[in-house]
Every structure is written in C-alpha cells, then in structure tokens.
Design brief:
With 464 residues, this protein is α/β, with parallel strands linked by helices. The protein has helices at 15-23, 67-81, 97-109, 125-129, 151-158, 189-197, 243-258, 274-285, 302-315, 335-349, 355-368, 406-420, 447-463; strands at 4-8, 41-45, 52-56, 84-90, 113-118, 141-142, 177-183, 215-221, 224-230, 261-267, 289-295, 324-326, 373-374, 377-378, 380-388, 393-399, 428-433. It is built from 13 helices and 17 strands. Helix 11 (355-368) packs across helix 12. It starts with a strand and ends with a helix. Mean pLDDT is 81; it is low at 29-36, 167-173, 203-213 and 236-248.
C-alpha cells in the first residue's frame, strides 16, 4: 500500500492548488472562491522521493451548516485514513478562529501533522509563519502551492522514515478501469458511487449542484481495480449562470474523455430530455463505452414502467448499442448487475479481433445484404482488419468506398457488433480504397512489348 497524504485547512487556503502541483495534473477545480471543493479527491503524487496517494478535501469550518456538515465529515475521514497530514494556513491572512478549531481537532486525532504557511511567495519565510506558532503544531513551513516554492523539500521531510513495501513503487492506477458517472443534476450520481463503495464516500445531499468537481475514487470489485469518477450535473447551457458551474461542466466533459466506460444516469421520475440525449450522444461521439442507468426505479408504479421504456426507445434510438439498466442507487437494486455490465463493456471496447475472422463476417454480411450499385457497378468490399480499440475500429478495404451509404455503414457496424459481442461500446467502421498499382503510369507495357524491349537491350549489350 502506498502512503496516504491528506490536505486539510479552512476554505480557500490553496489545498486544491497544492493537490494539482503534487499530482502534476489539473484534476482539482481551482478558483478564487471559498468552499469550492466538497468531496475527497484522490490522486497519485509525483513530487517527492517516493510514490504516494494525496487526498484533497473540503474546507473545515466552525459551526458548519447544511452541506458544509457533510463536507467537514468527508475531510475528517480523509485525516483518519492518512499517514501524514498537511495542514495549510494562509500566511497573508494570518490566524483565524477556523485555524484554531482545525489545529485543536488534529491534535486529538494523534496524526503526524505538517503546518504549512501557504501563499508565501515574495515573503520572508520567518515572517510568513510567525503568527502560527500559537497553533501548537510545531514550526510552520513557508511554501507557495501555486509556484511550488518549498514543496519539494517539504515532501522529502514528510516521508522521512517511511519505507515502501516491495512492489508498492509500481503502483499508480495504470491498470484501472476508469468509469465516469454523468447525468443531469440531482439524478443520484453520488448516491450510486456511495452504494458501490459501501460507505458515504461522496456528499449526497438533496440539493442540485452539490458535486462541483470531478472526483476520482479508487475502488476494487471481484479482483478488478476501478477508478470511479463522480462528475457535476450537466444542465442546458442557457441555465448555467455561475462561472464556477461552467468550469464544473468542463471538468465533467474532460472526465468522459479520460474514462474507459461511462454510466449515464437518468431519473426514472423525469422524462428523457433533450439534454440527456445531447449529453449521451456526446459520449458516443467520443467513442466511449456507455451504459444507461435509470435510477429510482423502485418508486415507479408498475403501470408506468412500460411507458418509461417506450420513452427511452423513442428519445435515444441512436444509442442502441448501450444497455439499459433499471436500478435503485439508494437501496442497491440492480447495482451489482450494472458493474458486471461495466466490465463486459470495457472488455468489448478493448477486444482484439483477427483479420480472417473480420473478413469472414464481412463476406457473410455481403451475402445477406449486398452493397448497392453505383452507375451500374457493384461496390466491392474485399477484406477487413482492426484499426484500433476503445472504441473498436474496423477498417474495410474495397473500391468505390466513397459511395457507401450511411445506412450500409450502420448495417455493417451492427453485424460486427453482434458477431463479436461488442455490446456497450460504439463500433466505428472506416473504409479505405485499394491502391491501383498502375495509377500515374502512362501506357503500361504489354507482355509482348516487354519481351521485345528485353531483346533490344540484349542486342545493344552484345554490340558494346
């Protein structure tokens, strides 16, 4: 197991900025706005002498109310599971009542704590930390999370005396299946991830927009490691007013790009909207494997269920490759089957297909339904081979391929999907024209002309 480092502090002291610096990513959303981070966000640290897991947390505050109470609970859980705690304070703002509250809380938990006076760029280190000795957590270390000043030497001190178990240095999440959970606000995305983890890992609150950032959660099930990505709810552009929500939507779309499989969540009590169709269509365009989870299914009367199924078929006909699962994230109904489908969709998107098998399926498809005629000549498709994975790309060679109609392309994609069991992932069929060996050559010689030229060459050689 890699050592775990938790970043704690009151809101807006630079925890997410430090998280991004330590992980060499932009996974944590950063803005000049207190209380932006709410859930625990995990990443693999790359600054320091050894590998480690770093956890970004929401701000700890006195007298938390509403969603802030859940935010504080998540931060304290991160501290409990951490091997080292980095307590950030704002060197420019000085000591606050929240800083005293956090210091008192950390002393009770008996963790090794490093007190960091952040935003100390351009300030003498002794001056930056002078106000914070009274917190009783040792000597403050002046750093700048934004510029990285003092961070590298800090991480060497943090891991002094820690020895990694054999094989731990190779860890880094490279073999994880990355699963992004997307949907409109308040459809139950965080509740679904909490059900999979078996704990209140993410803040689930009866308020749209509770999740603001894309939150990465390591997870293991049936011997397979996953990284679950909870995302902010995506609304229609016209309804997005706050600047921070615009960045949250961008992070959600970036999460789709980085995922292997996407779970699109729909609230069964709401009709399938144009926003759902647009969002899931974007996933298909990106070539990501997709599952549709209709949540809160246990509260739907039996006489309404057929109507909802018909609505899905009517509004999402272009997602015929995506299996639909009817679940209850709150009670766990259907969630186990959903995760088995995630593994199957991932395997399908990464499947290797042999050229002879692809060509055989192509020939069978043409026997059952021939390509159309173009100016009296039949389009000829000769053979197929695999051109990529995630999504599967099948390259078909032939002539007059520029005239292959879209309907026939969809037909071939469905035939390949059925024969190779590629459920859950879009299949892309690309066409490539065979090269003409005589293209660009003028009047190629006939065999008789070629023999005549050879005899002339021999006679001229004898004369010389």
């Amino acid at each position: 197991m890699l050592p775990v480092v938790a970043l704690v502090g009151r809101p807006n002291v630079g925890k997410s900025t430090l998280f991004n610096f330590l992980t060499r990513t932009r996974d944590a959303l950063v803005a000049d706005m207190p209380g932006l981070t709410r859930d625990r966000n995990y990443g693999y640290g790359k600054v320091g002498s050894i590998p480690y897991v770093v956890v970004d947390t929401g701000g700890l505050v006195v007298d938390a109310q509403g969603v802030e109470q859940h935010m504080v609970k998540q931060a304290l859980r991160a501290v409990e599971e951490a091997d080292r705690v980095l307590f950030l304070v704002d060197s420019r703002a000085g000591v606050t009542p929240d800083d005293h509250y956090i210091a008192q809380t950390l002393r009770k938990l008996n963790k090794k704590v490093f007190l960091l006076a952040n935003k100390a760029e351009g300030v003498d280190s002794a001056t930056a930390g002078a106000d914070f000795y009274g917190l009783g957590l040792g000597e403050p270390q002046a750093i700048s999370a934004q510029h990285g000043d003092g961070v590298r030497s800090l991480m060497d001190d943090v891991f002094e005396g820690i020895e990694l178990p054999e094989g731990a240095a190779a860890a880094g999440g490279q073999d994880d299946i990355r699963v992004a959970v997307i949907g409109r606000p308040n459809v139950g995305k965080s509740t679904l991830i909490n059900r999979l983890l078996g704990e209140e890992r993410l803040i689930s609150f009866d308020q749209p927009g509770t999740t603001r950032d894309a939150v990465f959660v390591p997870f293991e099930r049936d011997g397979q490691t996953y990284t679950l990505i909870d995302t902010a709810g995506v609304r229609r552009r016209a309804r997005v007013e706050e600047a921070i929500e615009k960045f949250s939507v961008i992070k959600a779309l970036q999460a789709v790009d980085s995922a292997n499989v996407v779970i699109g969540v729909i609230d069964a009590h709401d009709a399938v909207t144009e926003q759902d169709a647009s969002l899931f269509g974007m996933v298909a365009e990106r070539g990501r494997a997709l599952l549709i989870a209709v949540n809160k299914w246990d509260g739907i009367p039996s006489d309404k269920r057929d109507e909802i199924r018909a609505g899905l078929d009517l509004r999402l006909p272009f997602l015929d490759f995506a299996p639909v699962h009817f679940i209850s994230a709150l009670h766990g109904t259907g969630v186990g089957e959903l995760m088995r489908a995630v593994k199957h969709a991932y395997d399908a998107s990464m499947r290797e297909m042999a050229t002879p098998e692809l060509t055989r399926v192509l020939e069978t498809a043409m026997e059952q339904h021939q390509p159309p005629l173009v100016r009296g000549r039949r389009i000829k498709l000769r053979y197929a081979h695999q051109g990529g994975r995630n999504p599967p790309i099948i390259v078909v060679h032939g002539n007059q391929i520029q005239h292959v109609p879209d309907a026939y392309k969809r037909y071939l994609a469905n035939v390949f999907r059925k024969n190779f069991r590629l459920e859950g992932t879009p299949v892309r069929v690309q066409f490539r024209a065979d090269d003409n060996p005589f293209k660009g050559k003028r009047n190629p010689l006939t065999p008789r002309q070629r023999r005549t030229e050879q005899r002339r060459a021999k006679r001229s050689h004898k004369k010389t």
